[in-house]
Design brief:
Number of domains: 2
Low-confidence stretches: none
Helix content: 40-55%
Number of strands: 12
CATH topology of the largest domain: TIM Barrel
Number of helices: 10
CATH architecture of the largest domain: Alpha-Beta Barrel
Radius of gyration: 23 Å
Shape: elongated
Structural class: alpha/beta
Largest sheet: 6 strands, parallel
Strand order of the largest sheet: 6-11-10-9-8-7
Order of helices and strands: HHEEHEEEHEHEHHEHEHEEHE
Oligomer: single chain
Strand content: 15-25%
CATH superfamily of the largest domain: Aldolase class I
CATH class of the largest domain: Alpha Beta
Length: 284
């Protein structure tokens, strides 16, 4: 759940931007059929099984349009809900319920979809101590919502943004001139409290990264046999992350490697939305 400071400083501006995108001057359809205020109520219903996530954001959309809107929830973030579950009732000015419906559902459907997909992937790791990580492959201006959804689904967050940690990828290595130079430059520049993670693509790069003093080595798009050899070569001297086209279909094959982390961009960029609707709107 987002605290009040996070809501006001980081979440509200994004929701307001989404509302402005949907309502540039007025809601013509709503104003045509509801010219005056009228108290009403509508049901929030789940139309498929999954992990619900984003209820606070759903509510916030309506609250920003009219603070007197009331949402009564019957479930909470992280709950597994089944098709046809009544998850909440929203009470307020019918004009607000109609105008905020699409934006509120967009957030809730997207966040619940990510939580549900993440949960299904995390289960494939079984009892392994490996942490499932997300990436920065998020929808622009929706990272705060999508990374929260990963956590609700049972995953973990990698760095939030470029200011949050040192991750030297192939183009950083190219810019620096070598793995060794990139790590040395990062150690000289970054605060000592920052871990240095570097992406490698072959065993020669693995050896160079270990010798240069990397804290975390990311094995990127390597074959299963190469990754096993890399783990043996590292021999516990650094933490190890596996990345590169990791999906629900292939993650179970990586468990036997004995690495610390597996990251998957698919958690955020490929999760299908969860089918959720507002139904049975009526005046009170």
């Amino acid at each position: 759940m987002f605290d009040q400071n996070t809501l006001k400083l980081n979440v509200d501006p994004l929701i307001e931007s989404a509302l402005r995108e949907d309502i540039t001057s007025e809601d013509v359809s709503t104003n045509a059929v509801m010219p005056e205020p009228c108290l009403g109520e509508v049901d929030l219903i789940c139309k498929q099984d999954g992990i619900i996530c984003g209820l606070q954001i759903f509510e916030r959309v309506f609250k920003l349009l009219d603070d007197s809107t009331k949402v009564t929830f019957f479930v909470k973030d992280g709950d597994f809900v089944k098709n046809k579950t009544l998850m909440a009732k929203v009470t307020g000015d019918i004009r607000v319920l109609l105008s905020g419906e699409r934006v509120a559902l967009n957030y809730l459907q997207r966040m619940s979809g990510i939580a549900t997909y993440t949960n299904s992937v995390a289960k494939l790791l079984g009892d392994s101590p490996i942490k499932l990580l997300d990436t920065r492959k998020t929808t622009p201006n929706n990272r705060i919502f999508e990374k929260y959804s990963v956590v609700v689904g049972g995953g973990h967050n990698h760095r939030y943004n470029l200011s949050d940690g040192v991750l030297l990828k192939d183009n950083h290595i190219g810019a620096a001139g070598s793995v060794t130079k990139a790590i040395k430059m990062a150690k000289d520049y970054a605060p000592f409290v920052r871990k240095i993670e570097i992406e490698v693509e072959n065993l020669d790069m693995v050896k160079e990264a270990v010798d240069a003093g990397a804290d975390i080595i990311m094995l990127d798009n390597m074959s299963h046999e190469e990754m096993k050899q890399a783990v043996d070569l590292i021999n516990g001297r650094t933490e190890i992350e596996v990345s590169g086209n990791v999906t629900k279909e292939n993650i179970a094959k990586l468990v036997d490697l004995g690495v610390n982390y597996i990251s998957s961009g698919a958690l955020t960029h490929s999760a299908p939305i969860m089918d959720i609707s507002l139904k049975n709107l009526h005046a009170l």
